[in-house]
Structures are given as structure tokens and as C-alpha cells.
Amino acid sequence: MADAARPARLENGRRDLTNIAIDCFARYGYKATSIARIAEAAGLTKGAIYYHFRDKEELLFAAVSDRLTQFERSVTAQILPPADAGRALREIARVCLDHATKSNHRRFIVTLMVEAIDTNARLAEQFRAMMHRFRGFLREIIELGQREGSFRGDVSASVAADVYAGAVMGAEIQYYQDPESFDLEGTVNTFLDQYVGWLQRDHPQRAERR
To answer: Do 199 and 153 form a contact (C-beta atoms < 8 A)?
Structure first.
């Protein structure tokens, strides 16, 4: 009886389930995705899903957590330690563009991030913590550039980090709304040219004020 009651297993257990779940959520939306649909996609029974997760909301939370962790790791793994602050900022944007254009998962995460503000306090706190870490990571890179002398020191690193995060995420949202007409890569690259120029110590506007 014990063997019969044991749920079917995926190769990597919970991690495989969260990957399949986030794909279903992104494809069909949270409300239209049932545990039965996820179980079918995973080749499992509903009971096997409930063996790992209490309900659909718990599975959503775990799936979002795993995806955010994967994104953060992909950012930090490719630019740490940052040898050049300006290049590091461009690399972060490149990773964001890659995630935004190669999978619908990122679109779902960003959409959910906005919806959770008023509908799901637990998810909203998770997203808020992620954004704090992201802006903090940006701030550290900007402060590195300031210490090395490649970035001007009369700019608040915290404000500069907020500007970067707001611009890149704002561009992403516009792209998701109108992918046929909105040039995400061109917009982000233009922003980076102006942004990094603004941060550099020899920026023309700084020279004019001297």
C-alpha cells in the first residue's frame, strides 16, 4: 500500500514541477490553469502534485520564487566580479533583454508583479524583496564606478539605480503591450548610451558647469 500511495516522480522533483507550472501559468494565465492541467502537462496525477504542494497558490509561489532565483543568478553569474562598471550595466540589460524576448515566462512574471500589488500580499512582498536586491546590486556597481573614478561622484548611486531599474522595466512593459511596434532592444540601447554617458565623469554637462 505504501508503494501504491507514493506519487510519481519527475527527474528533479519539485524543480521540474515548478518549471512545468510556470510554463502553464504563462501560457494560459493563473486563473485558467488548474492543478489538473499542470498534472497533465507533467504526466502526473493530481495527487502527485498535492503531495508536493498544498494548493495552486503554493505552487505558484514556489514557481515564481524559482524563476526569480534563476534570473538573479543569470545576472550575477555573467558579470561578477565586474571589471568595468559601465560594461556591467550593459551586460545586465542584455540579460534582461534575453529573458524578455526568448520566453513568455518573463512577461508572466512582470504581469503578475503588477497584479500582486493589490491582490496577493505574499507575492507582492516576494517581488518587492527581489526589486530591493536588484536595485541594491545596481547601486553597488555604480558605487564601484564612482570609487574607480569612471563614474562621476556627484550623483546619488541609489537614485541612479532607481532610474536604471525603472527605465529597463518600463521598456519591457511597453514591449509586452506592443511587441510588433515597440523596439525593445533599440530603446534599451539608446537609454544605456545616454545613461552611461550621464554617469561618466567627463560628461559634457558636467564640464559645462565647471
So the answer is: no
Is 104 a residue whose pLDDT tops 80? yes
CA dihedral 57, 124, 127, 171 (to 10 degrees): 110
Give CA torsion, residues 70, 73, 79, 81, to 10 deg: 180
- Here the cell at position 123 is 507575492
**The most confident of 43-47, 49-53, 90-94, 183-187, by mean pLDDT:** 183-187
CATH domain 1-62 topology: Arc Repressor Mutant, subunit A (1.10.10)
Give the span between the Cα atoms of 195 and 154, in whole angstroms: 15
84-209: which CATH number, 1.10.357.10, 3.40.50.1240, 1.10.10.10, 2.60.40.1120? 1.10.357.10
